[in-house]
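Subject: sequence -> structure tokens, single chain

Hey, anyone have a minute? Need the predicted structure for the following. Not urgent.
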Amino acid sequence: MNDLEASNGEWIYSLCYQRLADGWLVDRDNHAVIDLAERKLAEFSKFQPNFLAIETLDPIEFIASLMAGARLGVPIFLINPNWGMLEREQFARLTDLVDSMQHRETISIPTGGSSGEIKFALHTWITLSASVAGFREFYEVDEINSVCTLPLYHVSGLMQLWRSLLTNGKLFITNFQQLCRDGVNAIAGNEDRYFLSLVPTQLARLLDLEVRWLTGFRTILIGGAPPEIDLLNRARAAKLPLALTYGMTETASQIVSLKPIEFLAGNNSCGQVLPHAEVQLSSTPKRNIEADLVDVIRIKAKSLMLGYFPNLQPIAYFEPDDIGTFDRDGNLTILGRNSAKIITGGENVFPIEVTNAIMATGLVSDAWVIGTPDRYWGQIVTALYVANARSVSADILATAIVGKISKYKIPKRWICVDRIPRNALGKILTQELAQLLGDK
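Reply:
Had a minute. Here:
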């Protein structure tokens, strides 16, 4: 069987065993993972669970548990250890429905949660492997070596593990604090063979530290949240081999990517659609759509989830609520969430454009734009910002972006805050944001 045709858990277990025996994990005790996987398999086999929930921040325990669950052939659920009581109660209610599942060899990856509603994207070994195949073809690489600082329970971390596993690559797992402190000594001299995956906040931190080794990577994948234009300009000035990406849990990570050579040439889009996927705009039936048309994105991919657990709802196209546009070269730019679109006085405003304009002033360290209700306008553009200095006022910021964006897009309401509530991946925590707005 081809490594990119992973179809059953027994084969996955055997492959992991073989790869670990060959030193798959960099700077880790690979044989300790094998021993732990065998113990877990023996333990789980005694009581024959109808599903397996993996909840750990320890990569050794995570991989061992994943191996054991795959070998048993039971549904696997990845759990965020940072969940609160609300999310755990929702998960408990969902797992009561496991026995009704038609597909047993599945892996359910959590998505959402910041709004209080947790969902699981239901994947199989086949959908995950399709993502790897598309990635490998797009980047024209046989072995995918990864430096992983992102959590394995999240699709961004899991797929780094999966890519290296299926392509005979190496996997160096570290946490971001260690990366900042110790660098990449474990792979020193071989950075040009590795992919590094970061979220924008991590990239900004490493640029602030002025680490020299960052330029040596084959590719630095950026995802998780839209990067600010100022951050991209800093990365380009440092000649970093950035690859901007677009993807989600539902598609088993990226389905669109920008190659570093295009980024360094000044391209700030998400790039081209990967071979295993199709991306359309909802009003256009063809992949080669009319340039500059703005509409809701529709996705078809071999890596697309089967549905949200427990509902298997195979659909021709998945609509993630994102608004985008293609240029004449087929590069996709994401303009924001359709549901986040602000309609003020009959005009459409996409928050990301306003946020980028504010960040480009250099007067703030973070910003977020949202629409808030207004009797006269319907909604008004509202900006939350973290000022770089006490002297930075709303009037100064508003003046700084005059002429950069249309007049109707300039925020009518400005809120100075100590911080913008974000999770570890840089995404907005909507409940905290709502509370913050309510307090102002």
